[in-house]
Amino acid sequence: MSADRGRSNALATLASLGAILALWWGVTASGLIAPLFLPGPSEVLLRLVDLARHGFVGASLLQHMAASLARVGLAMLFAVITAIPVGMAMGLYPRINAAIDPLIEFYRPVPPLAYLPLMVIWFGIGELTKILLIYLAIFAPLAIATASGVRRVDPGRIRAAQSLGANRDQIAWLVIFPSALPDILTGLRIALGVGWSTLVAAELVAATRGLGFMVQSASQMLVTDVVLAGIFVIALIALAIELVLRWVERRFAGWASAG
Amino acid sequence: MPVLSVERVSVTYRSKRGAVAALADVSVDVPSGEIVVALGASGCGKSTLLNVMAGFLKPTTGAVTVGGLPVTGPGTDRAVVFQDDALMPWLSAQDNVAFGLQMRGMGQAERRDAAREMLAQVGLEAFAGHAIHEMSGGMRQRVGLARALAVKPDFLLMDEPLGALDELTRERMQMLVLNLWQRSGKGIFLITHSIEEALFLATRLVLLSPRPGRIVQRYETGFARRFLAGEPVRAIKADPAFVAMREELSNAILAHEEEALAHVG
Ligand SMILES: Nc1ncnc2c1ncn2[C@@H]1O[C@H](COP(=O)(O)OP(=O)(O)OP(=O)(O)O)[C@@H](O)[C@H]1O
Ligand SMILES: [Mg+2]
Protein backbone atom coordinates (compact mmCIF):
# COMPACT_ATOMS: atom_id res chain seq x y z
CA MET A 1 0.00 0.00 0.00
CA SER A 2 1.40 3.41 -0.91
CA ALA A 3 1.76 6.20 1.62
CA ASP A 4 -0.52 8.25 -0.60
CA ARG A 5 -3.37 5.82 -0.36
CA GLY A 6 -2.81 5.49 3.40
CA ARG A 7 -3.17 9.24 3.75
CA SER A 8 -6.35 9.46 1.68
CA ASN A 9 -7.83 6.53 3.68
CA ALA A 10 -7.10 8.38 6.93
CA LEU A 11 -8.75 11.43 5.39
CA ALA A 12 -11.91 9.44 4.61
CA THR A 13 -12.05 8.19 8.21
CA LEU A 14 -11.64 11.70 9.60
CA ALA A 15 -14.26 13.07 7.22
CA SER A 16 -16.92 10.55 8.26
CA LEU A 17 -16.17 11.03 11.97
CA GLY A 18 -16.27 14.80 11.49
CA ALA A 19 -19.60 14.62 9.65
CA ILE A 20 -21.21 12.59 12.45
CA LEU A 21 -19.84 14.94 15.08
CA ALA A 22 -21.08 18.00 13.16
CA LEU A 23 -24.53 16.45 12.74
CA TRP A 24 -24.64 15.56 16.43
CA TRP A 25 -23.60 19.09 17.41
CA GLY A 26 -26.07 20.62 14.93
CA VAL A 27 -29.18 18.79 16.10
CA THR A 28 -28.41 19.38 19.80
CA ALA A 29 -27.17 23.01 19.67
CA SER A 30 -30.19 24.06 17.60
CA GLY A 31 -32.53 22.52 20.19
CA LEU A 32 -34.01 20.15 17.61
CA ILE A 33 -33.55 17.25 20.04
CA ALA A 34 -33.96 17.71 23.80
CA PRO A 35 -30.87 17.05 25.98
CA LEU A 36 -32.79 14.31 27.81
CA PHE A 37 -32.81 12.28 24.60
CA LEU A 38 -29.47 13.36 23.19
CA PRO A 39 -27.07 15.67 25.07
CA GLY A 40 -24.56 17.61 22.97
CA PRO A 41 -20.92 16.60 22.44
CA SER A 42 -19.59 19.22 24.85
CA GLU A 43 -21.95 18.11 27.65
CA VAL A 44 -20.87 14.50 27.21
CA LEU A 45 -17.22 15.54 27.27
CA LEU A 46 -17.75 17.58 30.44
CA ARG A 47 -19.61 14.66 31.99
CA LEU A 48 -16.67 12.38 31.16
CA VAL A 49 -14.31 14.70 33.02
CA ASP A 50 -16.74 14.82 35.92
CA LEU A 51 -17.03 11.03 35.95
CA ALA A 52 -13.27 10.72 36.16
CA ARG A 53 -13.17 13.20 39.05
CA HIS A 54 -16.25 12.37 41.09
CA GLY A 55 -17.45 9.03 39.83
CA PHE A 56 -21.01 7.72 39.58
CA VAL A 57 -23.18 5.38 41.68
CA GLY A 58 -20.60 4.93 44.40
CA ALA A 59 -17.44 4.36 42.37
CA SER A 60 -15.10 6.45 40.23
CA LEU A 61 -14.89 5.90 36.49
CA LEU A 62 -11.50 4.31 36.98
CA GLN A 63 -12.97 1.82 39.48
CA HIS A 64 -15.77 0.92 37.08
CA MET A 65 -13.20 0.40 34.33
CA ALA A 66 -10.92 -1.60 36.59
CA ALA A 67 -13.78 -3.88 37.65
CA SER A 68 -14.71 -4.63 34.03
CA LEU A 69 -11.13 -5.06 32.87
CA ALA A 70 -10.24 -7.34 35.77
CA ARG A 71 -13.15 -9.65 34.89
CA VAL A 72 -12.14 -9.81 31.23
CA GLY A 73 -8.48 -10.18 32.13
CA LEU A 74 -9.05 -13.10 34.48
CA ALA A 75 -11.41 -14.82 32.07
CA MET A 76 -8.92 -14.38 29.24
CA LEU A 77 -6.09 -15.75 31.36
CA PHE A 78 -8.05 -18.90 32.22
CA ALA A 79 -9.21 -19.25 28.62
CA VAL A 80 -5.68 -19.00 27.24
CA ILE A 81 -4.39 -21.57 29.75
CA THR A 82 -7.16 -24.05 28.95
CA ALA A 83 -8.47 -23.39 25.43
CA ILE A 84 -5.07 -23.47 23.70
CA PRO A 85 -4.04 -26.92 25.04
CA VAL A 86 -7.56 -28.25 24.41
CA GLY A 87 -7.51 -26.84 20.88
CA MET A 88 -4.04 -28.34 20.29
CA ALA A 89 -5.29 -31.75 21.43
CA MET A 90 -8.37 -31.42 19.21
CA GLY A 91 -6.23 -30.53 16.21
CA LEU A 92 -3.72 -33.31 16.83
CA TYR A 93 -6.02 -36.18 17.77
CA PRO A 94 -9.21 -36.74 15.73
CA ARG A 95 -10.64 -38.82 18.56
CA ILE A 96 -10.32 -36.03 21.12
CA ASN A 97 -11.85 -33.71 18.56
CA ALA A 98 -14.77 -36.08 18.10
CA ALA A 99 -15.32 -36.07 21.86
CA ILE A 100 -15.08 -32.31 22.49
CA ASP A 101 -16.19 -30.62 19.28
CA PRO A 102 -19.92 -31.43 19.70
CA LEU A 103 -19.93 -29.93 23.21
CA ILE A 104 -18.35 -26.70 21.99
CA GLU A 105 -20.57 -26.50 18.94
CA PHE A 106 -23.59 -27.08 21.18
CA TYR A 107 -23.08 -24.10 23.47
CA ARG A 108 -21.19 -21.74 21.13
CA PRO A 109 -24.16 -20.48 19.07
CA VAL A 110 -26.31 -19.89 22.18
CA PRO A 111 -26.15 -16.19 23.21
CA PRO A 112 -24.44 -15.95 26.63
CA LEU A 113 -27.32 -13.87 28.00
CA ALA A 114 -29.62 -16.84 27.35
CA TYR A 115 -27.73 -19.03 29.79
CA LEU A 116 -26.84 -16.25 32.20
CA PRO A 117 -29.98 -16.89 34.36
CA LEU A 118 -28.97 -20.54 34.68
CA MET A 119 -25.48 -19.54 35.78
CA VAL A 120 -26.92 -17.09 38.31
CA ILE A 121 -28.98 -19.95 39.78
CA TRP A 122 -25.91 -22.20 39.94
CA PHE A 123 -23.16 -19.78 40.90
CA GLY A 124 -24.99 -16.80 42.44
CA ILE A 125 -24.66 -13.18 41.40
CA GLY A 126 -21.00 -12.82 42.46
CA GLU A 127 -17.84 -12.48 40.43
CA LEU A 128 -17.65 -16.18 39.60
CA THR A 129 -20.74 -16.04 37.41
CA LYS A 130 -19.54 -13.03 35.43
CA ILE A 131 -16.03 -14.38 34.92
CA LEU A 132 -17.37 -17.81 33.98
CA LEU A 133 -19.78 -16.28 31.48
CA ILE A 134 -17.04 -14.36 29.69
CA TYR A 135 -14.68 -17.34 29.98
CA LEU A 136 -17.20 -19.51 28.13
CA ALA A 137 -17.63 -16.84 25.47
CA ILE A 138 -13.84 -16.72 24.88
CA PHE A 139 -13.17 -20.44 25.21
CA ALA A 140 -15.12 -21.67 22.19
CA PRO A 141 -13.69 -19.42 19.46
CA LEU A 142 -10.18 -19.74 20.89
CA ALA A 143 -10.26 -23.55 21.05
CA ILE A 144 -11.75 -23.77 17.55
CA ALA A 145 -9.18 -21.37 16.09
CA THR A 146 -6.33 -23.27 17.75
CA ALA A 147 -7.57 -26.63 16.47
CA SER A 148 -7.95 -25.39 12.90
CA GLY A 149 -4.52 -23.72 13.05
CA VAL A 150 -3.00 -27.01 14.19
CA ARG A 151 -4.69 -28.89 11.34
CA ARG A 152 -3.26 -26.48 8.78
CA VAL A 153 0.38 -27.02 9.80
CA ASP A 154 2.55 -27.96 6.84
CA PRO A 155 3.32 -31.70 7.25
CA GLY A 156 6.72 -31.09 5.64
CA ARG A 157 7.68 -28.95 8.62
CA ILE A 158 6.80 -31.78 11.01
CA ARG A 159 8.81 -34.26 8.94
CA ALA A 160 11.76 -31.88 8.92
CA ALA A 161 11.65 -31.66 12.71
CA GLN A 162 11.36 -35.45 13.01
CA SER A 163 14.42 -36.03 10.88
CA LEU A 164 16.27 -33.44 12.99
CA GLY A 165 15.60 -35.57 16.07
CA ALA A 166 12.58 -33.82 17.62
CA ASN A 167 10.41 -35.93 19.93
CA ARG A 168 6.62 -35.67 20.26
CA ASP A 169 6.58 -32.87 22.82
CA GLN A 170 9.19 -30.88 20.95
CA ILE A 171 7.18 -31.21 17.75
CA ALA A 172 4.00 -30.12 19.53
CA TRP A 173 5.45 -27.04 21.28
CA LEU A 174 8.34 -26.01 19.02
CA VAL A 175 6.83 -26.73 15.59
CA ILE A 176 3.05 -27.09 15.70
CA PHE A 177 2.32 -24.40 18.30
CA PRO A 178 4.38 -21.66 16.60
CA SER A 179 2.98 -22.69 13.19
CA ALA A 180 -0.55 -22.30 14.54
CA LEU A 181 0.20 -19.10 16.48
CA PRO A 182 -1.09 -16.71 13.78
CA ASP A 183 -4.44 -18.53 13.78
CA ILE A 184 -4.48 -18.66 17.59
CA LEU A 185 -3.90 -14.91 17.87
CA THR A 186 -6.58 -14.14 15.30
CA GLY A 187 -8.93 -16.40 17.29
CA LEU A 188 -8.01 -14.59 20.50
CA ARG A 189 -8.71 -11.22 18.90
CA ILE A 190 -12.18 -12.32 17.80
CA ALA A 191 -12.82 -14.08 21.12
CA LEU A 192 -11.92 -11.01 23.17
CA GLY A 193 -14.28 -8.88 21.10
CA VAL A 194 -17.10 -11.31 21.85
CA GLY A 195 -15.99 -11.54 25.50
CA TRP A 196 -15.94 -7.80 26.08
CA SER A 197 -19.46 -7.30 24.75
CA THR A 198 -20.70 -10.30 26.76
CA LEU A 199 -19.18 -8.93 29.93
CA VAL A 200 -20.73 -5.50 29.58
CA ALA A 201 -24.09 -7.16 28.95
CA ALA A 202 -23.63 -9.38 32.02
CA GLU A 203 -22.99 -6.34 34.19
CA LEU A 204 -26.38 -4.99 33.17
CA VAL A 205 -27.97 -7.84 35.07
CA ALA A 206 -26.02 -8.41 38.22
CA ALA A 207 -23.27 -6.11 39.41
CA THR A 208 -22.38 -3.33 41.83
CA ARG A 209 -19.49 -2.01 39.79
CA GLY A 210 -18.36 -2.04 36.17
CA LEU A 211 -18.97 -0.07 33.01
CA GLY A 212 -22.10 -2.03 32.08
CA PHE A 213 -23.53 -1.44 35.55
CA MET A 214 -22.70 2.27 35.34
CA VAL A 215 -24.51 2.66 32.01
CA GLN A 216 -27.49 0.66 33.26
CA SER A 217 -27.83 2.74 36.44
CA ALA A 218 -27.53 5.98 34.51
CA SER A 219 -30.24 4.95 32.09
CA GLN A 220 -32.59 4.12 34.96
CA MET A 221 -31.97 7.60 36.41
CA LEU A 222 -32.36 9.14 32.93
CA VAL A 223 -28.86 10.65 33.09
CA THR A 224 -28.36 10.39 29.34
CA ASP A 225 -24.95 12.08 29.21
CA VAL A 226 -23.50 9.40 31.51
CA VAL A 227 -25.02 6.71 29.29
CA LEU A 228 -23.32 8.23 26.26
CA ALA A 229 -20.03 8.81 28.09
CA GLY A 230 -20.11 5.19 29.30
CA ILE A 231 -20.73 3.89 25.80
CA PHE A 232 -17.74 5.86 24.52
CA VAL A 233 -15.48 4.45 27.22
CA ILE A 234 -16.68 0.90 26.46
CA ALA A 235 -16.00 1.41 22.75
CA LEU A 236 -12.60 2.97 23.36
CA ILE A 237 -11.49 0.09 25.58
CA ALA A 238 -12.63 -2.41 22.94
CA LEU A 239 -10.62 -0.47 20.37
CA ALA A 240 -7.57 -0.40 22.66
CA ILE A 241 -7.77 -4.18 23.22
CA GLU A 242 -8.02 -4.68 19.46
CA LEU A 243 -4.99 -2.49 18.79
CA VAL A 244 -2.88 -4.20 21.46
CA LEU A 245 -3.71 -7.62 20.03
CA ARG A 246 -2.93 -6.46 16.51
CA TRP A 247 0.43 -5.32 17.77
CA VAL A 248 0.97 -8.71 19.44
CA GLU A 249 0.06 -10.41 16.15
CA ARG A 250 2.55 -8.31 14.21
CA ARG A 251 5.24 -8.84 16.82
CA PHE A 252 4.88 -12.61 17.32
CA ALA A 253 3.28 -13.81 14.10
CA GLY A 254 4.48 -11.20 11.62
CA TRP A 255 6.24 -13.91 9.61
CA ALA A 256 2.87 -15.30 8.54
CA SER A 257 1.84 -12.17 6.65
CA ALA A 258 5.34 -11.34 5.43
CA GLY A 259 5.04 -14.08 2.79
CA MET B 1 31.63 -46.48 6.79
CA PRO B 2 27.94 -47.45 6.76
CA VAL B 3 25.73 -48.07 3.76
CA LEU B 4 22.10 -47.00 3.44
CA SER B 5 20.38 -49.90 1.71
CA VAL B 6 16.96 -50.12 0.14
CA GLU B 7 16.18 -53.80 -0.20
CA ARG B 8 13.42 -54.94 -2.54
CA VAL B 9 11.04 -52.23 -1.46
CA SER B 10 7.50 -51.98 -2.79
CA VAL B 11 5.04 -49.27 -1.80
CA THR B 12 1.34 -49.39 -2.61
CA TYR B 13 -0.80 -46.40 -1.71
CA ARG B 14 -4.38 -47.28 -0.91
CA SER B 15 -6.91 -44.54 -1.40
CA LYS B 16 -10.62 -44.28 -2.14
CA ARG B 17 -9.90 -44.44 -5.84
CA GLY B 18 -8.10 -47.76 -5.49
CA ALA B 19 -4.51 -48.89 -5.05
CA VAL B 20 -1.51 -47.14 -6.66
CA ALA B 21 1.68 -49.13 -7.02
CA ALA B 22 4.14 -46.28 -6.43
CA LEU B 23 7.24 -48.49 -6.13
CA ALA B 24 7.76 -52.08 -7.20
CA ASP B 25 10.72 -54.12 -6.02
CA VAL B 26 13.25 -51.29 -5.82
CA SER B 27 16.74 -51.95 -4.50
CA VAL B 28 19.45 -49.31 -4.26
CA ASP B 29 22.53 -48.78 -2.08
CA VAL B 30 23.83 -45.42 -0.93
CA PRO B 31 27.35 -45.98 0.39
CA SER B 32 29.17 -43.24 2.28
CA GLY B 33 31.22 -41.11 -0.06
CA GLU B 34 28.93 -41.62 -3.06
CA ILE B 35 26.26 -39.39 -4.57
CA VAL B 36 23.40 -41.52 -5.81
CA VAL B 37 21.04 -39.56 -8.02
CA ALA B 38 17.52 -40.73 -8.83
CA LEU B 39 16.28 -39.42 -12.16
CA GLY B 40 12.82 -39.88 -13.53
CA ALA B 41 9.66 -38.29 -14.83
CA SER B 42 7.05 -36.78 -12.54
CA GLY B 43 5.05 -39.39 -10.66
CA CYS B 44 7.51 -42.25 -11.00
CA GLY B 45 7.89 -42.63 -7.23
CA LYS B 46 11.07 -40.66 -6.48
CA SER B 47 9.65 -38.85 -3.46
CA THR B 48 8.07 -42.09 -2.26
CA LEU B 49 11.50 -43.73 -2.39
CA LEU B 50 13.09 -40.88 -0.45
CA ASN B 51 10.30 -40.90 2.14
CA VAL B 52 10.89 -44.61 2.71
CA MET B 53 14.64 -44.01 3.10
CA ALA B 54 14.02 -41.13 5.51
CA GLY B 55 11.69 -43.30 7.59
CA PHE B 56 8.62 -41.12 6.99
CA LEU B 57 6.87 -43.96 5.19
CA LYS B 58 6.83 -47.70 5.90
CA PRO B 59 7.34 -49.83 2.79
CA THR B 60 4.54 -52.24 1.95
CA THR B 61 7.15 -54.95 1.46
CA GLY B 62 10.94 -54.92 1.70
CA ALA B 63 13.19 -53.05 4.10
CA VAL B 64 15.58 -50.14 4.53
CA THR B 65 18.73 -50.67 6.55
CA VAL B 66 21.66 -48.56 7.69
CA GLY B 67 24.82 -50.53 8.34
CA GLY B 68 22.67 -53.67 8.40
CA LEU B 69 20.24 -52.37 11.04
CA PRO B 70 16.64 -51.82 9.99
CA VAL B 71 15.31 -48.26 9.76
CA THR B 72 12.12 -47.87 11.81
CA GLY B 73 11.53 -44.12 11.56
CA PRO B 74 13.13 -40.74 10.90
CA GLY B 75 16.52 -40.12 12.50
CA THR B 76 19.39 -37.65 12.54
CA ASP B 77 21.64 -40.15 10.80
CA ARG B 78 19.62 -39.41 7.63
CA ALA B 79 19.07 -35.67 7.32
CA VAL B 80 16.59 -34.45 4.71
CA VAL B 81 16.62 -31.39 2.46
CA PHE B 82 13.15 -30.61 1.13
CA GLN B 83 12.07 -29.14 -2.18
CA ASP B 84 9.98 -26.44 -0.48
CA ASP B 85 12.68 -25.77 2.15
CA ALA B 86 10.34 -26.68 5.11
CA LEU B 87 12.11 -24.11 7.30
CA MET B 88 10.57 -22.64 10.46
CA PRO B 89 9.63 -19.13 9.30
CA TRP B 90 9.38 -17.72 12.83
CA LEU B 91 13.05 -18.51 13.48
CA SER B 92 16.06 -16.62 12.14
CA ALA B 93 18.39 -18.35 9.67
CA GLN B 94 20.76 -19.13 12.50
CA ASP B 95 18.07 -20.59 14.77
CA ASN B 96 16.81 -22.71 11.88
CA VAL B 97 20.28 -24.15 11.40
CA ALA B 98 20.57 -24.73 15.16
CA PHE B 99 17.15 -26.42 15.38
CA GLY B 100 18.45 -30.00 15.31
CA LEU B 101 21.11 -29.15 17.90
CA GLN B 102 18.46 -27.59 20.14
CA MET B 103 16.47 -30.84 19.88
CA ARG B 104 19.35 -32.77 21.40
CA GLY B 105 19.65 -30.26 24.22
CA MET B 106 22.87 -28.53 23.19
CA GLY B 107 23.46 -25.26 25.09
CA GLN B 108 22.55 -21.96 23.49
CA ALA B 109 26.05 -20.53 23.08
CA GLU B 110 27.45 -23.78 21.76
CA ARG B 111 24.74 -24.28 19.16
CA ARG B 112 24.94 -20.67 18.05
CA ASP B 113 28.62 -21.13 17.28
CA ALA B 114 27.93 -24.39 15.45
CA ALA B 115 25.14 -22.77 13.44
CA ARG B 116 27.36 -19.83 12.51
CA GLU B 117 29.99 -22.21 11.27
CA MET B 118 27.49 -24.17 9.14
CA LEU B 119 26.12 -20.92 7.69
CA ALA B 120 29.66 -19.93 6.77
CA GLN B 121 30.09 -23.24 4.95
CA VAL B 122 27.12 -22.44 2.71
CA GLY B 123 28.25 -18.83 2.27
CA LEU B 124 25.59 -17.20 4.45
CA GLU B 125 27.67 -16.01 7.41
CA ALA B 126 26.40 -12.47 6.87
CA PHE B 127 22.75 -13.54 7.10
CA ALA B 128 22.66 -15.33 10.46
CA GLY B 129 20.11 -12.94 11.99
CA HIS B 130 17.91 -12.62 8.91
CA ALA B 131 14.30 -13.74 8.93
CA ILE B 132 13.45 -16.49 6.44
CA HIS B 133 11.03 -14.28 4.51
CA GLU B 134 13.84 -11.82 3.89
CA MET B 135 15.79 -14.45 1.94
CA SER B 136 15.65 -15.59 -1.67
CA GLY B 137 14.78 -19.13 -2.71
CA GLY B 138 18.43 -20.01 -3.25
CA MET B 139 19.40 -18.67 0.15
CA ARG B 140 16.59 -20.63 1.81
CA GLN B 141 17.81 -23.83 0.18
CA ARG B 142 21.28 -23.11 1.52
CA VAL B 143 19.81 -22.61 5.03
CA GLY B 144 18.02 -25.96 4.60
CA LEU B 145 21.29 -27.56 3.58
CA ALA B 146 23.14 -26.03 6.55
CA ARG B 147 20.36 -27.18 8.90
CA ALA B 148 20.66 -30.74 7.62
CA LEU B 149 24.47 -30.77 7.83
CA ALA B 150 24.47 -29.25 11.34
CA VAL B 151 23.27 -32.49 12.95
CA LYS B 152 26.28 -34.28 11.39
CA PRO B 153 24.25 -36.97 9.62
CA ASP B 154 25.84 -39.97 7.88
CA PHE B 155 23.50 -39.52 4.93
CA LEU B 156 21.91 -36.58 3.23
CA LEU B 157 18.60 -37.14 1.43
CA MET B 158 17.59 -34.38 -0.97
CA ASP B 159 14.22 -34.22 -2.75
CA GLU B 160 14.62 -31.92 -5.77
CA PRO B 161 16.45 -29.38 -3.62
CA LEU B 162 17.26 -27.16 -6.61
CA GLY B 163 14.06 -27.61 -8.60
CA ALA B 164 12.66 -24.15 -7.91
CA LEU B 165 15.84 -22.19 -8.65
CA ASP B 166 16.83 -20.24 -11.74
CA GLU B 167 19.51 -21.61 -14.07
CA LEU B 168 22.46 -19.61 -12.70
CA THR B 169 21.64 -20.05 -9.01
CA ARG B 170 21.06 -23.69 -9.68
CA GLU B 171 24.51 -24.22 -11.15
CA ARG B 172 26.12 -22.38 -8.25
CA MET B 173 24.18 -24.59 -5.81
CA GLN B 174 25.30 -27.71 -7.67
CA MET B 175 28.92 -26.71 -7.17
CA LEU B 176 28.21 -25.97 -3.50
CA VAL B 177 26.69 -29.42 -3.04
CA LEU B 178 29.74 -31.06 -4.60
CA ASN B 179 32.15 -29.03 -2.48
CA LEU B 180 30.25 -29.83 0.72
CA TRP B 181 30.15 -33.48 -0.28
CA GLN B 182 33.91 -33.53 -0.82
CA ARG B 183 34.55 -31.92 2.56
CA SER B 184 32.17 -34.17 4.51
CA GLY B 185 32.45 -37.50 2.65
CA LYS B 186 28.81 -38.28 3.39
CA GLY B 187 26.57 -40.54 1.41
CA ILE B 188 24.11 -38.45 -0.57
CA PHE B 189 20.83 -39.46 -2.20
CA LEU B 190 19.48 -36.76 -4.49
CA ILE B 191 16.36 -36.55 -6.62
CA THR B 192 16.09 -34.47 -9.74
CA HIS B 193 14.05 -33.97 -12.91
CA SER B 194 17.02 -32.53 -14.75
CA ILE B 195 19.16 -34.88 -16.82
CA GLU B 196 22.08 -32.45 -16.85
CA GLU B 197 21.94 -31.98 -13.07
CA ALA B 198 21.82 -35.74 -12.57
CA LEU B 199 24.87 -36.30 -14.76
CA PHE B 200 26.88 -33.51 -13.19
CA LEU B 201 26.18 -34.42 -9.55
CA ALA B 202 26.05 -38.20 -9.59
CA THR B 203 28.70 -40.75 -8.95
CA ARG B 204 25.95 -43.33 -9.41
CA LEU B 205 22.76 -42.70 -11.30
CA VAL B 206 19.52 -44.68 -11.22
CA LEU B 207 16.80 -44.13 -13.77
CA LEU B 208 13.24 -44.67 -12.60
CA SER B 209 10.22 -45.42 -14.73
CA PRO B 210 6.59 -44.98 -13.69
CA ARG B 211 3.56 -47.23 -13.23
CA PRO B 212 4.77 -49.00 -11.21
CA GLY B 213 7.84 -47.02 -10.12
CA ARG B 214 10.93 -49.13 -10.65
CA ILE B 215 14.62 -48.78 -11.49
CA VAL B 216 15.17 -49.43 -15.18
CA GLN B 217 18.83 -48.45 -15.63
CA ARG B 218 21.91 -47.89 -13.47
CA TYR B 219 24.97 -45.88 -14.49
CA GLU B 220 28.32 -45.04 -12.92
CA THR B 221 29.46 -41.54 -13.81
CA GLY B 222 32.66 -39.61 -13.18
CA PHE B 223 31.80 -35.99 -13.91
CA ALA B 224 31.33 -34.99 -10.25
CA ARG B 225 34.81 -36.24 -9.37
CA ARG B 226 36.29 -34.48 -12.42
CA PHE B 227 34.79 -31.21 -11.19
CA LEU B 228 36.26 -31.71 -7.73
CA ALA B 229 39.62 -32.50 -9.32
CA GLY B 230 39.60 -28.96 -10.69
CA GLU B 231 38.00 -29.12 -14.14
CA PRO B 232 35.71 -26.14 -14.85
CA VAL B 233 31.93 -26.73 -14.96
CA ARG B 234 31.54 -25.30 -18.46
CA ALA B 235 34.25 -27.61 -19.81
CA ILE B 236 32.64 -30.65 -18.20
CA LYS B 237 29.14 -29.87 -19.44
CA ALA B 238 30.50 -29.22 -22.97
CA ASP B 239 32.59 -32.41 -22.99
CA PRO B 240 31.45 -34.74 -25.82
CA ALA B 241 31.27 -37.61 -23.32
CA PHE B 242 28.86 -35.55 -21.16
CA VAL B 243 26.77 -34.56 -24.17
CA ALA B 244 26.64 -38.12 -25.48
CA MET B 245 25.52 -39.46 -22.13
CA ARG B 246 22.87 -36.75 -21.84
CA GLU B 247 21.47 -37.88 -25.19
CA GLU B 248 21.58 -41.50 -24.11
CA LEU B 249 19.62 -40.70 -20.96
CA SER B 250 17.02 -38.65 -22.87
CA ASN B 251 16.50 -41.53 -25.25
CA ALA B 252 16.28 -44.05 -22.43
CA ILE B 253 13.64 -41.97 -20.65
CA LEU B 254 11.63 -41.57 -23.85
CA ALA B 255 11.87 -45.25 -24.67
CA HIS B 256 10.67 -46.31 -21.24
CA GLU B 257 7.86 -43.80 -21.38
CA GLU B 258 6.65 -45.15 -24.71
CA GLU B 259 6.91 -48.67 -23.39
CA ALA B 260 4.83 -47.71 -20.35
CA LEU B 261 2.24 -46.03 -22.54
CA ALA B 262 2.04 -49.06 -24.84
CA HIS B 263 1.58 -51.16 -21.73
CA VAL B 264 -1.32 -49.06 -20.53
CA GLY B 265 -2.90 -48.77 -24.00
N1 LIG C 1 -0.20 -40.16 -0.25
C1 LIG C 1 -0.48 -40.71 -1.45
N2 LIG C 1 -1.64 -41.37 -1.64
C2 LIG C 1 -1.93 -41.92 -2.84
N3 LIG C 1 -1.12 -41.89 -3.90
C3 LIG C 1 0.05 -41.25 -3.77
C4 LIG C 1 0.44 -40.61 -2.54
N4 LIG C 1 1.65 -40.04 -2.71
C5 LIG C 1 2.01 -40.31 -3.98
N5 LIG C 1 1.07 -41.03 -4.63
C6 LIG C 1 1.16 -41.53 -6.01
O1 LIG C 1 2.32 -42.32 -6.12
C7 LIG C 1 3.00 -42.05 -7.32
C8 LIG C 1 4.42 -41.61 -7.05
O2 LIG C 1 4.41 -40.37 -6.37
P1 LIG C 1 5.74 -39.60 -5.96
O3 LIG C 1 5.36 -38.38 -5.23
O4 LIG C 1 6.66 -40.54 -5.27
O5 LIG C 1 6.34 -39.22 -7.40
P2 LIG C 1 7.61 -38.33 -7.76
O6 LIG C 1 8.46 -39.16 -8.64
O7 LIG C 1 8.24 -37.79 -6.56
O8 LIG C 1 6.95 -37.17 -8.62
P3 LIG C 1 7.42 -35.65 -8.74
O9 LIG C 1 8.62 -35.65 -9.62
O10 LIG C 1 6.26 -34.98 -9.42
O11 LIG C 1 7.69 -35.13 -7.37
C9 LIG C 1 2.16 -41.02 -8.07
O12 LIG C 1 1.37 -41.70 -9.01
C10 LIG C 1 1.31 -40.40 -7.01
O13 LIG C 1 0.06 -40.02 -7.54
MG1 LIG D 1 8.48 -35.76 -5.74
Task: List the defining traits of the structure above.
heterodimer; A: 259 residues; mainly alpha; MetI-like fold; 10 helices; 0% strand; globular; B: 265 residues; alpha/beta; Rossmann fold; 2 domains; six-stranded mixed β-sheet; binds adenosine-5'-triphosphate; binds magnesium ion
Structure report:
The complex is a heterodimer of chains A (about 260) and B (about 260). Chain A is about 85% helix and about 0% strand. With about 260 residues, chain A is an all-alpha fold. Chain A folds into two domains: about 35 residues, no CATH class; about 220 residues, MetI-like fold. In chain A, α3 packs parallel to α6 and α8 packs antiparallel against α10. Chain A starts with a helix and ends with a helix. With about 260 residues, chain B is of the alpha/beta class. Chain B has two domains: about 160 residues, Rossmann fold (3-Layer(aba) Sandwich), CATH 3.40.50.300; about 60 residues. Chain B has nine helices and ten strands. Chain B has a six-stranded mixed beta sheet with strand order 6-7-8-3-9-10, sandwiched between helices. In chain B, strands 2-1-4-5 form a four-stranded antiparallel beta sheet, with helices on one face. In chain B, β7, α5 and β8 form a beta-alpha-beta unit. In chain B, α6 crosses α9. The N and C termini of chain B lie far apart (about 45 Å). Chains A and B meet through α7, α8 and α10 of A and β6 and α2 of B. The site of magnesium ion (MG) has 3 residues of chain B, from α1.
Report strand % of chain B.
25-35%
Number of domains of chain B: 2
Q: Which value, in Å, is the CA radius of gyration of chain B?
A: 19 Å
> Helix proportion of residues of chain B, in percent?
40-55%
Main sheet of chain A, how many strands, which sense, barrel? none
> What's the number of domains of chain A?
2
- DSSP helix count of chain B? 9
What is the name of the CATH topology of the largest domain in chain A?
MetI-like fold
Specify the CATH class of the largest domain in chain A. Answer: Mainly Alpha
Which CATH-level-2 architecture of the largest domain in chain A? Orthogonal Bundle
Low-confidence runs of chain B (pLDDT<50, min 5 residues)? none
Largest interface: A-B, 22 and 28 residues
Beta-strand percentage range of chain A: under 5%
Order of helices and strands of chain A: HHHHHHHHHH
Mean pLDDT of chain A: 90
